[in-house]
């Protein structure tokens, strides 16, 4: 291991700064160089995409001076933060599509040390034009990613397609909620939340949340707090339009599964009703 690699490795266990201004220069340099993942929102917001995107492009085998990427970076200030990432992801996607070794480039991006690079790779699925089943299969690696940010982008990348073909999506996701990986189980719940956060709402599930009940039913006593919170939020979303239905589901779950996990879910699920 080189001295530079050792320095980057030493940064992996750091605690994120409480404010952007407090991020150490060496950490910011490593983040902008694509050498380490972010550990909190402040680091995410502090990254200079004008430096990170060309660095990542070079590292995965693309030309960092390509006109497509340069033009994209020049226009980023006109967009909101999350939109900027979508534009960067699209530019890298277009450059990769024209590359003679596109599969190798895609693999390097999907396994890149930077969580933002892997987020861009996850967003590619939204550009792919693949059928729903293939999109879900492609997004699985990102749904199970070790980084929380990549996991969030993963469900956002396929949300529109799930909403457009809801019944098929619910059927395809049924095996996911019994997977041994809590990240996969949580993905299925979070992806199908009727309202969700920072995403389009799923109108059929707002009006008829019972259509999604077979998907979340196996999670009513899930041992993972990560999953429990998502299921509770799913039901709380439903309660905004169908409070009586959410209350009846919680009552039944508590009767049939009187365990701490279910009690926690039921309490959080009804916070809008009981407030």
CATH class of the domain at 164-275: Mainly Alpha
Gross CATH architecture of the domain at 164-275: Alpha Horseshoe
Tell how many strands the DSSP assignment holds: 0
Helix content: 55-70%
* Low-confidence parts: none
Classification by helices and strands? mainly alpha
Order of helices and strands: HHHHHHHHHHHHHHHHHH
Radius of gyration: 20 Å
Overall mean pLDDT score? 96
CATH superfamily of the domain at 164-275: ARM repeat domains
**Tally of helical segments:** 18
Major sheet attributes: none
CATH T-level topology of the domain at 164-275: Serine Threonine Protein Phosphatase 5, Tetratricopeptide repeat
Compute the separation of the termini in Å: 56 Å
Estimated share of beta-strand residues: under 5%
Globally, the shape reads: globular
Q: How does this model look, in words?
A:
The chain is mainly α. The chain has a domain at 164-275: ARM repeat domains (Serine Threonine Protein Phosphatase 5, Tetratricopeptide repeat, Alpha Horseshoe). Helices cover 66% and strands 0% of the residues. It is built from 18 helices and no strands. Helix 10 packs across helix 11. The radius of gyration is 20 Å and the shape is globular. It starts with a helix and ends with a helix. 39% of the residues are buried.
């Amino acid at each position: 291991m080189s001295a530079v690699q050792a320095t980057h490795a030493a940064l992996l266990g750091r605690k994120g700064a409480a404010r952007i201004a407090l991020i150490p220069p060496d950490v910011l340099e490593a983040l902008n160089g694509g050498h380490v993942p972010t550990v909190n929102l402040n680091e995410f917001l502090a990254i200079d995409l004008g430096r990170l995107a060309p660095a990542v492009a070079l590292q995965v085998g693309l030309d960092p001076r390509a006109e497509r990427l340069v033009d994209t970076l020049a226009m980023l200030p006109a967009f909101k933060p999350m939109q900027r990432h979508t534009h960067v992801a699209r530019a890298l996607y277009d450059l990769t599509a024209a590359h003679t070794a596109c599969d190798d480039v895609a693999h390097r991006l999907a396994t890149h040390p930077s969580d933002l690079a892997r987020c861009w790779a996850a967003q590619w699925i939204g550009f792919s034009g693949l059928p729903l089943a293939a999109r879900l299969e492609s997004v699985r690696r990102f749904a199970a990613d070790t980084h929380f940010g990549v996991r969030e982008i993963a469900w956002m990348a396929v949300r529109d397609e799930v909403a457009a073909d809801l019944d098929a999506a619910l059927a395809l996701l049924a095996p996911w909620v019994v997977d041994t990986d809590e990240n996969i189980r949580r993905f299925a719940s979070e992806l199908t939340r009727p309202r969700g956060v920072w995403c389009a709402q799923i109108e059929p599930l707002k009006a008829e949340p019972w259509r999604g009940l077979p998907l979340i039913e196996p999670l009513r006593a899930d041992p993972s707090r990560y999953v429990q919170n998502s299921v509770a939020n799913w039901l709380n979303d439903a309660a905004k339009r169908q409070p009586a239905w959410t209350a009846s589901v919680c009552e039944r779950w508590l009767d049939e599964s009187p365990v701490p996990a279910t009690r926690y879910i039921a309490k959080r699920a009804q916070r809008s009703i009981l407030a």
